[in-house]
Amino acid sequence: MTADDDAHDQRELRFCRLYEANFRLVQAYAVNRLARPDDVADVVAEVFMITWRRLADVPPPPNDRLAVPALIAVAALVALALSYGSPSHRPGAPARPGTTAAAVLGRAALTAARQPAAVVPGPGQYVYVETIEGQRMSAGVETPGGTATSGICPQTVQVWAAPDGSGREVASAPTGPSCYGGIPSQTFGKGQQLDGDVYPRAADLPTDPAAHRQFIVRHFEDGKEEVGATFHFAGTFLQSGAPPEIRAALFRMIQGLPGIESLGPMTDRLGRHGIGVGFTEYGVRDVLIFDPATSAVLEREGIAADPAQIAVPPGNPEFSAGELINYTVYKASGVVNSRTDVPAAGNGSPSPGA
């Protein structure tokens, strides 16, 4: 590691600590000051974007606690601009620079490109990914009141994937009163397709965003693009051992997809803070949450945005607006030497790419 790499890592570590220590404080301030709840995420994103740019002006520990008044002052200025009808928030006007999906994904691409090179699995090695999978299920037997019961059924899933397509998947039984079936534990022979959370040959993907998009459409969408599917596969590839330049290209590719939204700061189901982007199709909003400091994917989820467009089997409860449909939380990832090994315990977040 060069001196420049070490300085960059230290800068990102400082920013992460400031973000984690002050996120809820800034968010609470914005909630109390703004008339429109939809503006809260924009204010928080703007405050921490300015903090990242001006990080050299923040006093080093332990005096970095003095940054709190400055963060609140920045939040006050941004909130004041919104309260007095900032042109960027009038109906029909474009979003402020830095908070659009294109800006968020552009920064993510730059961050991804600066990460250490991913370990590429060699002969006898596997990409390991551990996730928590949640899926809304409905009980097959109706209750006496005439309606079926439903709920999210979580499972812990471990996948070992070799570059030749072989591997192993181990899944816990789904838990909950409405749960049944779920993801099975199984092994895969050479050349078989693994599940949707691991792509073992991510290191061989194109580095050009346009070529990457064409690759997904050609190999996974039968030559006809569905933007929602492209967005989904891009999320899979981001967490499947891809090198920094390929992960940067993936973020650039998502940046170029039509209809991508910036969702602002979000927190995943393990309490980790990140930034969200999403795409809505057929009444479902697909969400991708990633760590802005490392670009690592933290979670993907599906939300019912327009329940009227979502078909449900007869006898099953309809979705309500904003209801969670499914999620994938990325707990850990890495390259291991067998189909039983797991990576050494890290800091609670998946590694970028592997």
Quickly list its features.
354 residues; alpha+beta; Rna Polymerase Sigma Factor, Chain: A; 2 domains; nine-stranded antiparallel sheet; 7 helices; 22% strand
Task: Give the gist of this structure.
With 354 residues, the protein is α+β, with helices and mostly antiparallel strands. The protein has helices at residues 3-33, 40-53, 67-83, 101-113, 209-220, 227-238, 244-255; strands at 126-138, 150-161, 167-171, 186-188, 261-267, 273-281, 284-290, 297-304, 324-336.
- Termini separation: 19 Å
Number of helical regions: 7
Largest sheet: 9 strands, antiparallel
Q: What is the overall silhouette?
A: globular
Strand order of the largest sheet: 4-3-2-1-9-8-7-6-5
- The SS-based structural class is alpha+beta
Into how many domains do the coordinates divide?
Answer: 2
Whole-number mean pLDDT: 78
What's the β-strand tally?
Answer: 9
Order of helices and strands: HHHHEEEEHHHEEEEE
State the low-pLDDT regions, or none. Answer: 84-98
Helix content: 25-40%
**Relative strand content:** 15-25%
CA radius of gyration: 21 Å
